[in-house]
Amino acid sequence: MELRHLQYFVAVAEELHFGRAARRLNISQPPLSQQIRLLEEEIGVRLLNRTKRRVEITPAGAAFLAEARRILVASEEAVRQALRADKGEIGSLAVGFIGSANYSVLPPVIREFRRRFQEVELSLTEMNTSNQIEALRAGRIQVGFLRPPPGSAEGELAMLPVYREPLVVAMSRNHPLQGMEETPLRLLAKESFIMIPRQRGPGYFDHLIALCQREGFSPHIVLEASQFHTIVGLVATELGIAVVPASMRRSRFEGVVFRTVAGGAETILHAAWMRDHDSLVLRNFIAVADEVSKSLPPLSS
């Protein structure tokens, strides 16, 4: 039994006339009659009663009609879903992100992707850069928003810059330097720094250390925390200062002020994924991230 046999039977059962059913199916009447007889022989019951004047559906035919319609609808839905999957319109995607991404590019990317691909199931997990890279390699996430270590894009990871922003100094509102609109890094040489540990965010850690060393000092690190919003919260306790991405101004911790690092120092957030991961859902997500990132206004220093 093939789907066409079900289509033939449904047409005859709905028209109750072989000639009209044949015209509806765009075939001639004799082959249609023959296919219905063969269907009845295969099933072993009479589905239609035929006379020269009329066609009537039998009780067995009525029961078969209901299931035949259901199967045809299901087959059409299967085709539709296959086509949608082929376009990356359905499926699932696991996304990792560092906390600061939630203050910048991540929300508009997720909103736009959900608007365009409503039937893709997204799962989002906050994790630091090192954990994201490990999760990408293990397949636990398919894309991450992170600040990669130098050289990451030269290997198995593909990278897309999605947000460039200045660096700012987070300090207590009672700090002696809080009155300066721009803070040269050299003035922080004797400060107590709160930083992300290198094993959690090696790219950002190395970048900041290099910037400080160019100014002739290595930062005195007194505390470490895995996420920027935790770091800013610790700054609010007046345990030290921190150099963070400018988007962290939106965290709005009571008692913390942000002053731009002089000299145009900045950091870049990237979307990252495995080069060998070939998924239309992922491609669509990266395309949306690229489009949204280009539409965002630059973050003022």
Walk me through the structure:
By secondary structure, this protein is of the alpha/beta class. The chain folds into 3 domains: 3-86, Orthogonal Bundle (Arc Repressor Mutant, subunit A); 93-162 and 271-295, D-Maltodextrin-Binding Protein, domain 2; 165-267, D-Maltodextrin-Binding Protein, domain 2, CATH 3.40.190. The chain is built from 9 helices and 12 strands. It has helices at 3-15, 18-25, 29-43, 59-86, 106-116, 129-138, 202-214, 228-235, 280-295, and strands at residues 48-50, 55-57, 91-97, 120-126, 143-146, 157-172, 182-183, 192-195, 220-224, 242-245, 256-261, 266-274. The strands form 3 sheets. Strands 3, 4, 5, 6, 7, 10, 11 and 12 form an 8-stranded mixed beta sheet that branches. β1 and β2 (55-57) form a beta hairpin. α1 (3-15) crosses α2 (18-25) and α5 (106-116) crosses α9 (280-295). The radius of gyration is 32 Å and the shape is rod-shaped. The termini are far apart.
- Name the CATH superfamily classification of the largest domain: Periplasmic binding protein-like II
**Total beta strands:** 12
Rg is 32 Å
Tally of DSSP helical segments:
9
Shape: rod-shaped
CATH architecture of the largest domain: 3-Layer(aba) Sandwich
Query: Could you give the order of the helices and strands?
Result: HHHEEHEHEHEEEEHEHEEEH
Distance between the first and last residues' Cα = 70 Å
User: What amount of the residues lies in strands?
Assistant: 15-25%
- Which CATH class of the largest domain? Alpha Beta
